[in-house]
Amino acid sequence: MPLSPTLTELTDPTRSGDDTAPDRDVPSLPSDLGTRLVLSPRPGVAASDGAWWPRTLDLLVEVPLLDAAVHELTRARIARLSYERSTWEAAPRKVRTPLGITHLGWFDNSRRPHHVLLSMSSYVRLVLTLIPPDLDEDSARGMLDSAGAGADAELLRSEARGAGDRWADDGGTKQAAHRRR
Predict the structure, then answer these.
(1) Residue 82 backbone dihedrals phi, psi, to 5 degrees
(2) Reduced to 3 DSSP states, what percent helix, strand and coil does the chain have, rounded to the nearest 5?
(3) Is 115 helix (H, G, I), strand (E, B) or coil?
(4) Helix and strand counts by DSSP (H, E) for the chain
(5) Closest C-alpha among 26, 37, 16 to residue 143
(6) What is the pLDDT of residues 146-175, one digit of tens each?
(7) SS3 at position 81
(8) 152 and 146 in contact (C-beta within 8 Å)?
(9) CA-to-CA distance for 154 and 51, rounded, in angstroms?
(10) Backbone torsions φ then ψ of 87, nearest 5 degrees
């Protein structure tokens, strides 16, 4: 068995308790965890590193699910999650997950109230855009798909800027910018 469990192992109902689960009161994990989370293939390039569609606004329920889903994609667990307090229901400073303990921190007034900041055990930081839990499934899936496509589009756009090209919404082409001088 690998050092850290996979999503399949965490959601297996026949799995016996072992030392990876610090508390047996952690809710059972649904099998569609990964379908509610999209991560950019290159974190840190855009303002957001992905999108997350939680089921509720209760962090005691959502953090264990998010930790398992993020772990499946990154092989790292969430060490700390920071959030805008007004967006979520009241939560304690720590939440037990199937992978360990996640510390919670909050902001009273954030510039990005619809984002959560994840500090991973691998020392990577991720910013996830929240999709409202009460949004209908078709709209939420569309937003998840757009977030995945948007991350790739932003990456291509930043690479083009790095090569010295200018985009039309940045003032036109290189030639148009040259004529203005």
Answers:
(1) -115, 140
(2) 35, 20, 45
(3) strand
(4) 4, 7
(5) 37
(6) 877 654 434 323 332 343 343 344 444 444
(7) strand
(8) no
(9) 14
(10) -80, -30
The DSSP secondary structure of 131-143, one letter per residue, reads PPTTS-HHHHHHH
More confident call, 154 vs 120: 120
Say how far apart CA 120 and CA 76 lie, in whole Å.
Answer: 6
**3-class DSSP state of 76:** coil
Question: pTM for this one?
Answer: 0.66
Closest CA to 98 of 12, 2, 1: 12
Average pLDDT across the chain, whole number: 74
pLDDT digits (tens, 9 = 90+) for 55-77: 999 999 999 999 999 999 999 99
CA angle 19, 23, 24 (to 5 degrees): 100
